Automatic annotation (TrEMBL):
Designated name of the protein: F-box/kelch-repeat protein At1g30090-like
Region (Disordered): 1-50
Source species: Phoenix dactylifera (Date palm)
CDD domains with a match to the protein in the record: F-box_AtAFR-like (cd22152)
Lineage: Eukaryota, Viridiplantae, Streptophyta, Embryophyta, Tracheophyta
Keywords in alphabetical order: Kelch repeat, Repeat
Domain (FKB95-like N-terminal Kelch): residue spans on this chain: 180-334
Amino acid sequence: MRRVRVSSHQSPVQKLGDSQMKLSPKFRLAITPPPSSFPSSSASSELESPQKLGPLIPGLPDDIALNCLLRLPVEAHSAGRLVCRRWHRLLANKERFFSQRKALGFRNPWLFTLAFHRCTGKIQWQVLDLTHFSWHTIPAMPCKDRVCPCGFGCIAIPPDGTLLVCGGLVSDMDCPLHLVLKYEMYKNRWTIMSRMLAARSFFAGGVIDGMVYVAGGYSKDQYELNSAEVLDPVKGNWRPVASMRANMVAYDSAVLNGRLYATEGCVWPFLSSPTGQVYDPKTDSWGDMAVGMREGWTGSSVVVDGHLFVISEYERMKVKVYDGESDSWDVVESSPIPEQIRKPFSVNSVGSRIFIVGRGLHVAVGHVEKKSCAGSDGKGRRQSFSVQWQDIDVPQVFVDLTPSSTQVLYA
């Protein structure tokens, strides 16, 4: 097991940018840009005026120099801004920096974790740069203080660098929310989108072909919903889709082969079999989840290379993978998950890597490798997997934070 040390002394938590938002009582955003956000006309030409300000990097054409500077890790920006005026203009404004990266096709993964303080309940997003393994913060979400972080539905649209936080629950009133918040990494700010048709919390959600689907969850008075709806992120409007076959609160959900899978999960002492449903957007219809899939879905799921993996919450955090042909779960051969990873935890994946974020925001990275073995009938071969884990040390300031959701964006 390898260790990647990212201590609080070596890599403090950085800000991706300064918050530009103030929240009025009715959830309306009042944008208050700092003076440096909108430079003057003379400043706006700095990057394009090498004859006046000199080259970005002496001896290199500006296009090559810009390509180099856009690879600088965010934690190096504060020092880079001191080099010259042109570097300051590029690195001082994160919207400009990430927009330039997008224009040139840079796509590095960032791990966004919604966490709450175990004593105060205050919620916050912490962001891990998966290229340089450094931590960063983003502006606070414009929402009420007394919300239950686990009630949110957090859904990422990775190619767009967009994160949606939908619904939720006012913790002191048990009142679900219609609220939909959108964070755009290229702009480093939150905006409020059109609210959902139904207020809901603890629901299933996922992205299929660029459309955002949500289903089930709790309504008022802890009433379970069967309604479902879809958001067009471009147009910004919600519309209803086929209702679920039964009212259901989702414990976990995943998108696999163009379908949304939702499970209510197993609850100790396992007196009843869990419910699971599958939505197919091509036919706009729901079906029952296969028996073996729903009964073995005992933890948080992640999809790697078209295969559904689960980090079990009840079997000493075993890693399992689902085999659709036999409708069964296979235990994945793996090194021990680092002992620092404690429940509750959240999971996500990037390529062939699984990321588990545990209490205190300790992160374990699982490197998934494919294998092949003979089929159960002795004929043909079937795929199997192994996982090797490494852990990442985190700043001590995270010791009281508990993860609620983990999402991946590219920028």
